[in-house]
């Protein structure tokens, strides 16, 4: 076979680097170059000669793994592919694969010639927190639960050791599932956040870890259960603090006391009003990062947020029972330090049937504030200064009954404390003001800019969404006849010209105005593997990200109903749903991110957390077989992967 000329090689690389391509391994480039030797008139030669531009792309999904191959169920599995179509009609197919940057608990380069423990926990003085639960095996705690990840680049990076181009990733670690003795450690440790400096190979797009930097969170009083994340339009990492600690009853919260003990060395020091906010990480050119916590976006169960293209409107996920749909409209572009907080009110017609038109949305203004003034309130006010909250009916008409986390509360706001209530007791105050506080676990959010549609994941549809369910209230406008544990994804039309409940104009062109169901899962009786939801449909969606170029919604599962959780791709035009990846059994898919073009390459980030977190009802048929395999793969179940989808060299086809 004749060899490709240098010019044809360069042209082929130019064509494929200009596509929204997943990065290729080194052998993929060899295959690509060999393809340039296709005889004249062949598909590769035609593409190289014409430079035909990108037309469209689609994913070819994979089957779910089974016990026919137990090893495949105990690791990350990718048997899917990307089909790329050019405008001249030719196509290319790329088999996908998964590449971790590291497994938590590994030693990773600190950029200074030394190493750091990936996912390692530190206290308020940035000293290691030691797991002493097993005598003789004392070691620093590290997370098995990496979550939100943002991939970004800077104009003038200054990190030594880069051979290609510097790319950065911000990765947060939500919690540790257990200590070495097996005792539950959820929410008892301050969440770490790291900046990764990655070397992008300009020939292949492959990313390799050069530097791991732990972000100092001490000035923000540490971090609480950092879950999903998003990349802001101004290139910062927008983090989250999930399941805000209930300040009204914090004296009874053993979890929060343990958190305070680990962070400050004293279980009585941590202030619950410092947590449940929105942290923002700015990456510096040297691969370090700085963090600020914004106090004016509502103290809710922040899962992840999505900033709209106006650089001001922020749609927020609220991962709680009796949660709401919240929007923050910033006073100034690219600054979350001041603005107005709104909660949605559902009109009639709410439905989880994708065939139905759904319900209109209106907006209730909760208040306007700066982060500085709410932080001052958090520093100085006690819960009893803001409102009285009772768990039993006082038989006093001055109290209002609300539902909070599925339980009835009777509340009364103290005179003059409306702003403090709006921003520090947001769930209760939003209910009091008439917001539709009946969703259950509204998690990931993302936006389809071209169509002006926002997507919100409901990890499940139960409890407060179901008539007579825990926390259900007719005023929410949500009244399902039965639960859908598998959950689904809602789509909301975005528009301007909206007003709040007082008639005042809302200064945004990106407010949700109507909500309908897009995709829903299907609960089933346990199948042969143990699945409690149809494995060929999305179940318990959590992370959401949208690719404008691919017209594709990416979905990561946090499922108590699939034996293996999956990452999916859903094309909003063709309605094709494709399974891209399977996580180790018992693990949740996290860290989902999509970058359409970074120096010519497209990236899909994906992590997982708590592999082998067995649930007897779900994993009873597989646990005995899979547990030793998962333990062998992931540091006795203490480790989890941070990484991205790439293209496997065996899958490149040119003609």
TrEMBL record:
GO molecular-function terms, A-Z: alkaline phosphatase activity
InterPro entries found in the cross-reference section: PhoX
Leader peptide range in chain numbering: 1-34
Enzyme Commission designation: 3.1.3.1
Keyword tags: Hydrolase, Signal
Record flagged with keyword Ligase: no
Any Pfam family matching the protein: PhoX
PANTHER family: DUF839 DOMAIN-CONTAINING PROTEIN, SLR8030 PROTEIN
Name of the protein in its database record: Putative alkaline phosphatase
Lineage: Bacteria, Pseudomonadati, Pseudomonadota, Betaproteobacteria, Burkholderiales
